[in-house]
Amino acid sequence: xxxxxxxxxxxxxxxxxxxxxxxxxxxxxxxxxxxxxxxxxxxxxxxxxxxxxxxxxxxxxxxxxxxxxxxxxxxxxxxxxxxxxxxxxxxxxxxxxxxxxxxxxxxxxxxxxxxxxxxxxxxxxxxxxxxxxxxxxxxxxxxxxxxxxxxxxxxxxxxxxxxxxxxxxxxxxxxxxxxxxxxxxxxxxxxxxxxxxxxxxxxxxxxxxxxxxxxxxxxxxxxxxxxxxxxxxxxxxxxxxxxxxxxxxxxxxxxxxxxxxxxxxxxxxxxxxxxxxxxxxxxxxxxxxxxxxxxxxxxxxxxxxxxxxxxxxxxxxxxxxxxxxxxxxxxxxxxxxxxxxxxxxxxxxxxxxxxxxxxxxxxxxxxxxxxxxxxxxxxxxxxxxxxxxxxxxxxxxxxxxxxxxxxxxxxxxxxxxxxxxxxxxxxxxxxxxxxxxxxxxxxxxxxxxxxxxxxxxxxxxxxxxxxxxxxxxxxxxxxxxxxxxxxxxxxxxxxxxxxxxxxxxxxxxxxxxxxxxxxxxxxxxxxxxxxxxxxxxxxxxxxxxxxxxxxxxxxxxxxxxxxxxxxxxxxxxxxxxxxxxxxxxxxxxxxxxxxxxxxxxxxxxxxxxxxxxxxxxxxxxxxxxxxxxxxxxxxxxxxxxxxxxxxxxxxxxxxxxxxxxxxxxxxxxxxxxxxxxxxxxxxxxxxxxxxxxxxxxxxxxxxxxxxxxxxxxxxxxxxxxxxxxxxxxxxxxxxxxxxxxxxxxxxxxxxxxxxxxxxxxxxxxxxxxxxxxx
Length: 774
Prior knowledge:
The protein has 12 helices and 43 strands. The chain has about 775 residues and is an alpha+beta fold. The chain has an 8-stranded mixed beta sheet. Helix content is about 20%, strand content about 35%. It folds into 4 domains: about 290 residues, 3-Layer(aba) Sandwich (Rossmann fold); about 130 residues, TolB, C-terminal domain (Neuraminidase), CATH 2.120.10; about 150 residues, Dipeptidylpeptidase IV, N-terminal domain (Methanol Dehydrogenase, Chain A), CATH 2.140.10.30; about 140 residues, Neuraminidase (6 Propeller), CATH 2.120.10.30. Helix 7 crosses helix 8.
């Protein structure tokens, strides 16, 4: 057992005690309050939504901005606050955002101040592109004259994407219909920089798989001097098309086609170009390697004009090679490479310091994720955060104090805290107060002195305040969610605790559970697991959980013990081996961990009814639910699988090959990791849910699973939501219908409430004439 696991065992026990004590303390505090049980309508009605505090730091100054309701009746005002004093200044009045000829202000969906803060760029009238609304209209407000005008010329409505000020504030660049444009803010003339964009060639934005799996949407960046743009071009011409059928938008079905590379199939060819703001020929950056067998995952300008640094992954994602290139010499020059026999993570939290001569880089090269100094020219890499713990995220650099800020939680993988360490090396120290256990996030000002800080726990909604660093001194409170806290105080008492379970020597899994009001350990209760279990996320976190958390609490009030366990392979800060041991066996090791945890907990807690065990999950959690019911039919009686991947071969290249390798090199892993392979073993009650318009996890996989279950004579229930995407939230009443369906299926097939333990089997009578001791 390593040090991190020993610490986890100690902190886990302490956390159980603290959580139980908090639940008990809540009961005492609630004695005089009327009890108001949850209903499904209350869960879905939004009354338990937590409030945040939407603010944005200035790029240079210690001030922050936010839109607020103003004294007038027209629109909302953009307000500037001084961090130190709290002094407030109205920068933009809502009435200034009323377009000529209209009586209503623009609906502001995004905004940016120009570098000199004299103009406001407004994004509105948006349309959805894959997961996010990234296509719409842009308007420009002059803060001196109050003139408001629409950008983009006479182009079609809601077709502009990612409009961005140049660093000198003289131009705005944007994408329209897969081509890159720049508009002058002096005379508002428009120059088209690329002309080859069409349905298959994409300039300045991305195809489906790059957006979904590399988190890339905006596909261009201004040079620091505002004279050049670097941009991605994506050629999807050889990528197989996926076709979805829209049966409800008209009299006849409509086919929706888009390029989607499934595992083992051809990827888009992607390259990077440099183009002058004045137009002219594109200078293509010469990066070695087959453009369909590599991914250009990131590019950024350095502060030295006309030089970019590129991150390039091989298809297996074992290597992240960094390259330099420039306008004068577009031939890529190698800098350094990050390698891993499993996979390398692409991150956005690296920082260039010391006039771009040193890179702060997160690496797992010593078995833990740490911040390393990577010199650009001479010298060896230096680890700045040594120790048996993970850096979760690099947040900011404070050049004046010579330190950097990062998130870590060495003692408890379910929590997050702020730390700082010297840029030249030295001891790291925790800044988050030790009496604030839970989940902390920080939006740090550019000078590193201030942070908008959010703190929550599993049972306590967020508190948002402004703190001064590095002392973590509270300056002012923005939001405490007092109304929500009072509502929660009137709910029936549900005991909440965190625990750890050892599934094999040295392997400790984190979990949480909710016990029903009036829990009696002498009785037996149905247990209902929430699962995800894939490398993309954790479920066991000591933070406020939103709607699903309230729904789980509602189920606990009905008489279920609700639990969740994070298996190995989830992105918990427990070291590289924890996260990457599932390489090549996603679905195999993860479901085995979940089953082992269930067996161990049933041995530990006699109140768990082994005949009433349910499980549910969404997306990867839906796949895990299928694996649980199919691979371990003796353990699970009920499952609800939402938007699963029944066959890993049907998912996309970048995600699935990252964790499983190429299907040609790991055919057995793909076969054994796919729930479809074990569908014939289903014995329990199964609910399948999917949206037919899911462009991410295709309905095709659900139909293949249904076909397999039918072939083996298996009974199940299935709900298809027409044209709904992976989130199954589009359309009137969809979310309410879905959660009513899940709740009714659960209560019908996994009866709630405690039962008396089954009596032990009676001993067989001794045969007549038998002698004692014979």
